[in-house]
Amino acid sequence: MHRWSQLFIPTLREAPADAEVASHKYLVRAGYVRQLAAGLYSFLFLGQRAKLKITQIVREEMDKIGQEFYLPALNPRELWESSGRWTAMGENMFRLKDRGGRDLCLGMTHEEGMTEIARKELRSYKELPQIWYQIQEKFRDEPRPKSGLLRVRQFTMKDSYSFDLDAAGLDVSYRKHDNAYRRIFDRCGLKYVVVEAHSGAMGGSQSHEFMVMTDAGEDFVASCPKCGYAANLEKATSRVEPVEDLAPTGTGKPELVHTPGLKTVEEVAKYLGVSPQQKMKTMAYMAVEEDGKTGESRNRPVIAFVRGDHQLNEAKLSSAVEGRVFRPMHPEEIQEIFGSPAGFLGPISIPPGKNKYGPPIVLVDTALQGRTNLVSGANKEDYHLRNITPGRDFPVEQWIDLRTVREGEGCPNCGAPLVVGKAVEIGHIFKLGYKYSQAMGLRVLDKDGKEVTPIMGSYGIGVERILTAAIEQNHDEEGFWLPPQIAPFEIVVTPTNFADANIKHAAIDVTQKLEAAGYDVLLDDRDERPGVKFKDADLVGMPFRVTVGRKVSEGKVEVVERSTRKIEDATISSIETHFGKAFRPAS
RNA sequence: CGGGGCGUAGCUUAGCCUGGUAGAGCGCUACGUUCGGGACGUAGAGGUCGCGAGUUCGAAUCUCGCCGCCCCGACCA
Asked: Quick one: fold of A255-400?
């Protein structure tokens, strides 16, 4: 029997001053966690119990599709060099040396570790497919840990890796994970959405994120309330309202206009009496390319054009340049490449690559397709151009979606207005492709005796994020309530006065009956006033409370549902029957 | 890494501007009264004022440096 008086549950009346989001405040106030340093948290009894319940659900569902492994968190440099990520991870990876001066790191994920095992052990197509997973600590030297447990430097992740013979096999593994994830998050009692996600620099072909919508989140999701379309803003597309083009002026050919000191889209549009929609915006970036052999880095200009009132999406740009690392161009570089300072850049007469940089990668957003007589910079200080028609006045090799979707724009599927909201990413499934298997030399023989490279997928779940997302989703002024499946205890029994013999015996009786019926029960046997115990019960996240008090003389207690505060009388002798099937959804 | 804020008892904080050696509420200990929504009384314990240097007769307070934490941005397989 779990007696509160014997346990360490340090509840606080006030939240620590540095806690901002609800989950952070309540995890600390309810005695689930304590902060050790930025992005590092100790889990106390209640927190650890909730975490164990979550990992148990994850484990049960993952065991249906895969096999649990356990890998070292401490990795040798060579392992990460074999995939190229020793340098690619940069400052985000924790690094250290052993006594012999050898370089080690703390794993951020385990693609390398898993692939290394596969590389050494898998020989034949007969051994495929494989799904290997782990529930372990990951380490990331975050530039900015924040929001309590939402972005931390050490956290528990379930991640799995699939190895298949071909893309069709990967599809199967991917779907298995999609199903398993839905079961996991359903069982954890979360409301979530599955969104199309940006594949990132990994260059994978398909990727979905499992998101919990909450203002505490740091990702943005565009979704359609009508047809259910949902995508990360890094990936989302939309239908753009047609825009009326300007009539040509003068000869109809690109025409120089003097625009002294006018640099922003708004200034120029206003000065010329046109709308920003009739302007095109020129964004200059520099991609940093590294020579794999010499390790020398070289700069390659990337020039992107979007409509004047649109916002360039850097995630989409990143995909468009095949994951190359890029940064905004420096002012000197702009001057050197365009022959003009920023603010007057445009698509026409970019001086040819006489400079030390390679030919620029030029990308044009699809929203400019079919447009005519646009206004843009002239690549000449204090001048802009009118009458620019893409394709006629400058070549467009490829139209690419580069813009960021805005709320209210039309859903790409059904045209209904899109809604944009903040979300926390709790899971991610990802088709990796051949990146690791190829780089690390994983090969098996197919049935013709030919060597083939297996195709991989990787799939992650943030365990602590499930807990924090659940709190963000279920809290009020007094505290929070967790879904019973992941609450440290499902029921807290609150005797109003434990010194009263009748009440005491009834409370113990109720606790024993409920425990015998299989429930996790916490008996608040503390010698505290009822008000204190009620406040704590409201705070600490248990979904149900049984109040044992004045109705004991009638053989009754009260059952309170924390989320709704609905109170029902229940008979002590049959208390265990009170919590029906609805209490525990099928597991 | 750029911008901003904060660091005083376990928690929340006053005091800092205008220098004179630290105060409150909650929590904690003991005793008594109380007991269905954070009780009351009495008596207590608890602070290198983040660290270091400087100015000064004297520094929580002024100056400089460092460290830590939070927020915005950048970043985020």
From this structure: YbaK protein (3.90.960)
